[in-house]
Amino acid sequence: MSILPPVMLQSPKSHPSFLEKMVCSSSKLARIHLIKDKDAIDHYLAMNIKGLSKQEAAAYRNSYKKNICIDMLRQGYHKSFSELFTLIQKWNALREAAGPGSAIWQQKSLEEQPDKLDQLHHFLTRAEAAQRAEYYEDVYINQLNLAYCFNNPEDKWLRNYFYEQCFNTAQLIKIDGGKKEAEAHANMGLVNEEQGQFMKAAEHYEAFYQLTVGRIWKDETSHTYNSLACEHLWRIYTLLADKMLENKEHQQAIKTLIKAFEMAKEGGDKKMEGEAAYCLGLAYHSAGEEQTAILNLNTYIEISTALCDMVGLGRAYQAIAKVLVSQGKVTEAIKYLEEFVKVAKSAYLSRSLVDACVFLGDIYNEKGNYNKACEYFSQAFEAANTLTNLPLVDETKVYYGIAKAHNMMVAVNSYTETADPVSVEYLLAWKENRSGMCTDPFTVELPKEASVLETL
């Protein structure tokens, strides 16, 4: 009987060859094979797992930044990709320049913040699409939205970058009568002002003003663009004048502050107009033109009174008093300062009350009226105690102590100059207890058995 050949068992169709290669004794060798057969894995996943393409699989491996960049390039937004890449490089350069320990060094890089990358991807690509179609107004709107997205302090450099892009785009918009260009000038003025470039800021604000004259454009708060331009010019002219006054350029500062006053008046804001009159008054005072200074400060008083602005009214009284004191008109100055005290008390302005009382105390102290000086320094000390300002409390305490010492020295000097037994007896008695100093030694009854010699 013949023996049949053994039956060859047919094994089921195996998985692709790369799976067989994965079976090995060394895990390190298996990892090498996996890396070498990455394309085979991607092919297998694409063929056997529904809905997962090679690109989708790669999306899980790539960083968020890389996926954003790849998406831009696939959609043909090469300019947006280049701009995003440049901004990331700029952030890294700023960080390196600041060095370890700086605020920017502690922040996450731009490429590590998905929310910001999403905003950049969304608006940059929309702006590029609009630019291709020459819809420059849409380009401007998308760039402006990006500036608004990065308004946090740590992102100001990005905001400023997109404001500059808005400014360049606004020059190409010819269908809105210059509204976008006006907005762009205002924003660039803000950027320059924050950077301390006041002259450049003034140029942008002046252009903003010229574009808004006679227009009824309004912002979201219903303020007209022209009134906003006036406010910006008032502020920047005042800042420029402050620099001029620091450099002793009094006449140039006065000319600049006159322009600021005119802008404030045109803007229609009475409080702003009052502030401009106040600054102008101080400038005239620093230039030695006292009468003109008082006229402008009186204008500030009138405006503050009309607005029931007690803080402004107190500042005006104090400023006029300083001008009058510099002219030697102390009696008139005291009247204004007493009004200052009344205003401060009625409005519960503790800090203003301290200033007014210290000023009055100084005047009376210099005049030799030490009782009055003590009275006002005492009020200043009491008002300072209501504030959480320990240095101010200590300062007023010293003023009060000096005035008390001066007041006591009047009596001490009087008794010393008299040098009779009664005066000497009284001085010695006062030295024992320091309880007070009577102005008339004859009103004090001395002990019958006490004598000057015995005390000595």
Automatic annotation (TrEMBL):
The UniProt record lists the keyword Signal: no
UniProt key word Cytoplasm: yes
Taxonomic superkingdom: Eukaryota
Record key words, sorted: Cytoplasm, Repeat, TPR repeat
TPR repeats: 354-387
Biological processes per GO annotation: cilium movement
Subcellular location per the Swiss-Prot or TrEMBL entry: Cytoplasm
SUPFAM superfamilies: TPR-like (SSF48452)
Matching InterPro entries: Bac_ResReg_Asp_Phosphatase, TPR-like_helical_dom_sf, TPR_rpt
PROSITE patterns on file: TPR
Cellular component GO terms held in the UniProt record: cytoplasm; sperm flagellum
A Pfam match: TPR_8
Function: Axonemal protein which is implicated in axonemal and/or peri-axonemal structure assembly and regulates flagellum assembly and beating and therefore sperm motility.
Record protein name field: Tetratricopeptide repeat protein 29
Source organism (scientific name): Alligator sinensis (Chinese alligator)
Lineage: Eukaryota, Metazoa, Chordata, Craniata, Vertebrata
